[in-house]
Amino acid sequence: MPKVPKNVVTSVGIRCIAPFAYESKIRNSMIDFKFKGISFNAKSYAKALCRTIEYYGISDKFDTITFVPLSKIRKNERGFNQSETVAKLVGESLDKPVMPLLIKIRQNKNQHDLDFAERVENVKGIYMPQNTEYIKGKNILLVDDIATTGNTLAECCRVLRENGADNIICIAVAIAGAL
Questions:
Q1: Cα(16)–Cα(150) distance, rounded to whole angstroms?
Q2: What is the pLDDT of residues 44-56, one digit of tens each?
Q3: What's phi and psi for 170, nearest 5 deg?
Q4: What does DSSP assign to residue 115?
Q5: What pTM was estimated for this model as a whole?
Q6: Burial letters for 147-173: b for 16+ Cβ neighbours within 10 Å, e otherwise?
Q7: Taking the CB of the first residue and of the last residue of the chain, which one, N or C, has fewer CB atoms within 10 A?
């Protein structure tokens, strides 16, 4: 983990913290994790996220942990949701509940295949709340694997806020340099 984790405001105004830049060995290991199911690094990612949470002193700033959901199609293809896997490990380490608070209601194009303007449109309206009784009045840690433009996180935050979340902290394993 770098000496100082990344703490950026994305191009769409969402603040996100992450222990790693999405480059070099981290990029390669995350591609293996996300697309090839090579998950032995998931525990290391979770440890790095916990250290980042500790570094910023925010472990008492959230009640619940959630994650960016995948569509049923994508989850079936991969066999797992990489963000959910890491979120559950973080929850175990911090003794915090992990809840699926969002569902993805339709399959969209892969964000990494799109330019900035297309990414904004691609995620609009694709998430819905789930377990709303665990959203209202809560402070939520939203876990993602890779933050690029921040559009996915922004859309997830929008839905959580519209359903009563008090505060949302976004954290990702890695942040792309384009931010």
A1: 8
A2: 999 999 999 999 9
A3: -100, 135
A4: -
A5: 0.90
A6: bbbbbbbbbbbbbbeebebeebbbbbb
A7: N
